[in-house]
Design goal:
The chain has 5 helices and 12 strands. The chain has 253 residues and is an alpha+beta fold. The chain has a single domain, classed as 2-Layer Sandwich (Alpha-D-Glucose-1,6-Bisphosphate, Chain A, domain 4), CATH 3.30.530. The strands form 2 sheets. Strands 2, 3, 4, 5, 6, 7, 8, 9, 11 and 12 form a 10-stranded antiparallel sheet that branches. A two-stranded antiparallel sheet has the order 1-10. A hairpin with a 2-residue loop joins β7 and β8. α3 crosses α5. The longest helix is centred in the last third of the chain and has 28 residues. The relative contact order is 0.22. The N terminus and C terminus are likely disordered.
């Protein structure tokens, strides 16, 4: 009963707002990461094995910034017996992401111009007592850097927490308001043809609130574990999607 009461009280007791200085610190960190990734090639991954996940930056993870935490993780995986075009088709096909990524409740393509894609997700994050739903708009920018090599930089800045999702009481909060477990998500893909498959590396930066005083036992597992687990799940589910038969191949360019 106590756990149930805490779960019901979480939104009312822990709501916060995203501060401009927190956004500025995140953007500055992301800029340094993008400079590091210039010319970067994916790290080796075991063929057909589990994703290899490691801390993205040299500093501790998560990284403290004013009123927030930056989570920096990198993972690599090998997609066997598929072409790089097939991998790109899955990544860019927002209309079918719902079929391949279990954490999504909705997905659709908003617009597409050349190698630039904007898509929408309704995303559900579940962890212990906290079950939070978000409406996310992601802008993804693809570039072919060499024959058989592509990069993608995807930015989720428009993240809105949804209360009572799917009910008559559903309420979509303004950007930067709510529990603060997910405020921003930047995703950096590096893809390279390797033998009969594709080597893929994904570095993720996400921004959350700081852990409230006295609430670490509830919030710490959510804010520390979910970003790493989400990265691993994304890599696994993408591999499953690209190896399934009958995947649509939308025109990308």
């Amino acid at each position: 009963m106590l756990l149930l009461l805490l779960a019901l009280l979480l939104p009312a007791q822990l709501d916060t707002k995203l501060e401009p200085r927190t956004v500025a610190a995140f953007d500055a960190y992301a800029k340094t990461v993008e400079q590091e990734l210039a010319g970067h090639r994916p790290s080796p991954a075991p063929s057909g094995g589990e994703p290899v996940i490691w801390q993205g930056g040299a500093r501790k993870n998560p990284i403290d910034v004013p009123d927030g935490l930056i989570h920096d993780w990198t993972g690599t995986i090998f997609f066997a017996n598929v072409s790089i075009d097939r991998v790109l088709a899955v990544m860019q096909d927002f209309d079918h992401h719902l079929q391949w990524y279990p954490e999504l409740m909705r997905s659709r393509l908003i617009r597409h111009s050349g190698n630039d894609f904007t898509g929408y997700w309704r995303l559900e994050k579940k962890e212990q007592l906290v079950d939070v739903v978000f409406d996310v708009t992601q802008e993804a920018h693809y570039a072919q850097v060499a024959p058989g090599r592509w990069t993608c930089r995807a930015y989720a800045k428009d993240v809105r927490e949804v209360r009572d999702a799917g009910t008559t009481h559903e309420k979509i909060l303004p950007i930067g308001e709510g529990l603060g477990v997910f405020w921003r998500g930047y995703y950096y893909w590096s893809l390279e043809t390797s033998g009969s498959g594709v080597l893929a590396e994904l570095r993720t930066l996400s921004l959350s609130r700081s852990i409230p005083t006295g609430m670490g036992w509830i919030m710490k597992p959510v804010l520390q574990n979910v970003p790493r687990e989400s990265l691993a799940a994304t890599l696994r589910n993408t591999r499953k999607a690209v190896t399934e038969a009958g995947i649509p191949h939308p025109s990308r360019r």
